[in-house]
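CATEGORY: protein folding

GOAL: derive structure tokens
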Amino acid sequence: MRKKITLIGAGQIGGTLAHLIALKELGDVVLFDVAAGIAKGKALDIAQSSPVNGFNVNLIGTDNYDDTKSSDVIIITAGVPRKPGMTRDDLLEINLKIIKQVAENIKSRSPSAFVICITNPLDVIVMALQKYSGLPKNKVVGMAGILDSSRFIYFLSKELKVPTQNIKSFVLGGHGDSMVAMLGSTEVNGKKISDLVKEGKIKQETLEEIVERTKKGGAEIVKLLEKGSAYYAPAASGIEMAESYLKDLKKQVPCAAYLNGEYGFKNIYAGVPIIIGKNGVEKIIELNLNQEEKKAFTYSVNSVMELYKNAQKIDPDL
């Protein structure tokens, strides 16, 4: 039996997700969108590439939630993307309404699905989704840290002229301007980044500029595209999470996960390294943070809490 993967939202990320799932043959795809034509068109277009690419999965597009019934994995990209000059907070009110409807439909049709949320503002939306749907907390996660880490590693690789595969690093905290690049755990060819700074291979200021550029990675792309926001890298990041769940790979990846005392926080979603396997979030990895990292992480989680309070003002159901 092939797995069933539902993509809620057939925009640029949704379409890219569908394409990647088909190429990797991770499962059959249901592309859902309120604009049925877009969902059906993209599903048909990707399906017509199957003889060329040699994949064998079923793809359908729909605007009917009944077609999503009994999904194994659901990836949510539904919502309004950021427009130039828009803050993540501006998005909150619009996207909360959308996510509430999505959550209710997941709850009634696929209560045992593993749900990955990509809709922004990420940390708060994933928290709202879990509350609205009532799904187990280990089965609801947000895609953010993988994308931020990927951007950071890419920028570092360009600066140091080193292949991305030779760099190890990741990002913690909220998705956006308060993310925390774990410089203490960043290694290039097995060497700590702090040693490379000492050796003069990279300046501390350059490193800080790269961290800043990573924080604003999404906004930089929004500005360049003028219409729309990033989709190739976010889709690839979502697929890494889905694949680890479906194949029980137990990969360690940074994701927005529910904290219940880890890192000193409770009842909040925040970006931390987790192990994803067939039971969803199987473990939260607690890192030893230095003082500076701890301070930045606390600031980051607190800004997520603040935004969540705003969400509760918008919708008292939270």
The CA atoms of residues 264 and 298 lie 9 Å apart. The mean pLDDT is 96. The longest strand covers residues 266-277.
